[in-house]
Write a structure and sequence with these properties.
The complex is a heterodimer of chains A (145) and B (413).
Chain A (H helix, E strand, L loop, with lengths): L3 E7 L2 H14 L4 E6 L6 H11 L16 E5 L4 E6 L6 H6 L2 H4 L4 E6 L5 H6 L2 E7 L5 E7 L1
Helix pairs in contact in A: 1-2
Chain B lengths: L10 E6 L5 E7 L3 E8 L19 H17 L8 E7 L3 H18 L3 E5 H19 L10 E6 L4 E8 L8 E8 L5 H11 L6 H9 L21 H12 L21 H13 L3 H11 L7 H4 L5 H29 L3 E5 L6 H13 L4 E2 L3 H4 L4 H12 L18
Helix pairs in contact in B: 1-2, 3-13, 4-5, 4-7, 5-10, 10-11
Classes of the chains: A alpha/beta (145), B alpha/beta (413).
């Protein structure tokens, strides 16, 4: 059960990145976190902030993994895996990605469209639900164990 | 090399397994494709008959040996007759790359052949060069390359600009690359595919949008692209970038001592803009109907989807494509001018888009900048481009050390 619930509001992509940086400070690896939200909600934008928070990548280096499936950003202490399961439809395809190998002690695994798989909903340590509330404003709900 | 000596030129086996496709090719002299086999989940022509299931990562393991055998057979070659083996080292999916790299290393060791590691993006650039050489040979000329050369690699996974330098004007030695721009969020091909998906057009999205756009008014819907500024908003990032540039080998011919100007792309916003347009113009019901009508068709054709699109949808598609094409062309030509590029290559899956080709041809020609594209089969992932990119490295004896490994986020330098 995800019992702890926090809500955040941002007014711009820059604020969303800053929020990601602050969230990173709360996350101790290993963590498997689902990023939920519609197309264009800002899942990759939040990941930019989280990667920045762990000193794993510059904001501009974090790009959408939709086609490449997995992006890896190595920080001094923590490795961030950013996955997008948008193109993945079956458990068998999911298995080929090597998710188990990624979930190492120093890893933060961020998964977009992971809610398609009941197993990931059960196993995740947290989920971040992103809602579009205006042109640039967003609501983030962080639910964690 | 004279046309008579091509038959004696080195033969390289190329292996590519960075993402969805498992591919092998045999290329002679960096230009003559003796065989090129690509096995893809979405291939219209399946060389092995029947439906091949999803081919990511470990699926390459099953496919690779038959694909390599097929390529050698078609080329009339065998392991012993090869001069070298080339493999994609990265970037790509770690597990998928590892299959190709492990196979290539084992083969090189067993057959005592030199092994060449190729960057996937460099492969896309050399797909263009390969065909340039073929055309020049057919016309009885040598290939006229002009450096620095700017390459736009534009696909589902990449929208990257590289400024390429070579040891000599023939481009026969190893090439070096400077990244002078990339997407900050979504790749251009991803925007095409996501827009196709949200409009219920089916797969593959890029070619469908290309085909449908001709039937709509490309000025009907206005899209605005945020003007991206660079250097980095984040001063720490700009410093890191400057340090990376200054630590790259300065002895390379034509190397720029100053930080090259950067031109970045961003295609996440236009995807959201199309979604908003759809929501605010009551198009969701017709999209759902189209999605249902096309459900179950693995590879949708333009003639199947066209009757399912009303004028408004076609206008939206045409306007979206025009906005994408104009932004890609404008930014690439801005970079070309700022970097002093003397030649332009446009490559990767999106380079197959006919509007993009047309617009690049018109605008670059007006600037006196020669622009070249790969043929459509060589635009998408293949192994012929890997073998072609390996050729200058073969000539320059740039072989991979025995302990090299796959690198998921390999940078092109």
């Amino acid at each position: 059960m995800l019992t702890s619930v926090q809500e955040f509001l941002t007014q711009s992509a820059e604020e969303s990145i800053a929020l990601g940086e602050r969230m990173a400070a709360q996350f101790t690896p290993p963590k498997l976190i689902l990023l939920r939200g519609d197309l264009g909600a800002g899942k990759t934008t939040l990941t930019k902030g989280i990667a920045l928070g762990f000193d794993a990548a510059e904001a501009d280096e974090v790009t959408s993994p939709t086609f490449t499936l997995v992006h890896e950003y190595r920080g001094p202490q923590v490795t961030i895996y950013h996955l997008d399961l948008y193109r993945i439809d079956t458990e068998r395809e999911l298995a080929t990605l090597g998710l188990e190998e990624m979930c190492a002690d120093n890893a933060i695994v961020l998964i977009e469209w992971g809610e398609k798989f009941p197993r990931l909903l059960r196993e995740c340590d947290a989920e971040i639900i992103i809602e579009r509330t205006g042109e640039d404003s967003r609501k983030f709900v962080l639910r964690a164990r | 090399m004279s046309s008579s000596s091509i038959n004696l030129a080195p033969i390289i086996l190329g292996i590519e397994s960075s993402c969805d496709e498992t591919a092998a090719a045999v290329v002679r002299g960096g230009e003559e494709i003796l065989a090129s086999v690509v096995l893809s989940q979405f291939a219209t022509h399946q060389p092995f008959g029947g439906v091949v299931p999803e081919l990511a990562s470990r699926e390459h393991l099953r496919a690779l040996v038959p694909v390599v055998r097929r390529a050698l057979e078609e080329a009339g070659q065998n392991y012993a007759s090869l001069d070298a083996i080339a493999v994609t080292q990265g970037p790509g999916l770690a597990g998928a790359l590892l299959v190709g790299v492990s196979f290539a290393k084992a083969l090189a060791y067993a057959e005592d052949k030199p092994l060449i590691a190729v960057n996937h993006l460099e492969g896309h650039i050399h797909a263009v060069l390969l065909e340039q050489k073929q055309q020049a040979r057919a016309a009885g000329n040598t290939t006229a390359l002009r450096f620095p050369l700017l390459a736009l690699v534009v696909s589902g996974g990449h929208t990257h600009l590289y400024l390429a330098h070579a040891a000599d004007e023939a481009g026969s030695g190893g090439w070096t690359y400077q990244n002078v721009g990339h997407t900050r969020d979504d790749a251009a091909g991803e925007a095409f595919d996501k827009v196709a998906k949200l409009l219920g057009l089916g797969y593959p999205g890029g070619p469908l949008i290309d085909g449908l756009a001709a039937h709509g008014d490309d000025r009907a819907v206005k899209f605005a692209f945020a003007q991206l500024k660079h250097p980095d908003r984040n001063p720490q990032g700009a410093r890191k970038y400057a340090a990376a540039v200054s630590s790259s080998p300065a002895s390379q011919p034509g190397a720029r001592t100053t930080m090259p100007p950067r031109v970045d792309f961003s295609y996440s916003g236009i995807k959201t803009a199309v979604l908003r347009h759809v929501e605010t113009h009551a198009m969701l019901a017709s999209i759902e109907a189209r999605r249902k009508a096309l459900a179950g068709i693995a590879k949708v054709t333009v003639s199947e989807v066209l009757p399912l699109c009303d004028a408004h949808t076609l206008d939206l598609i045409a306007s979206f494509q025009r906005a994408m094409v104009e932004d890609l062309v404008r930014k690439t030509l801005t970079a070309a001018e700022a970097c002093g590029a003397k030649m332009l290559f446009v490559t990767g899956g999106v380079a197959a888009n006919s509007a993009l080709r047309g617009h690049f041809n018109a605008k670059a020609t007006a600037l006196g900048l020669p622009v070249h594209f790969p043929s459509r089969p060589l635009s998408t992932d293949n192994a012929a481009m890997i073998a072609a990119a390996a050729y200058p490295k073969f000539l320059a004896n740039l072989f991979a050390p025995a302990d090299f490994s796959a690198e998921a986020s390999l940078a092109l330098r």
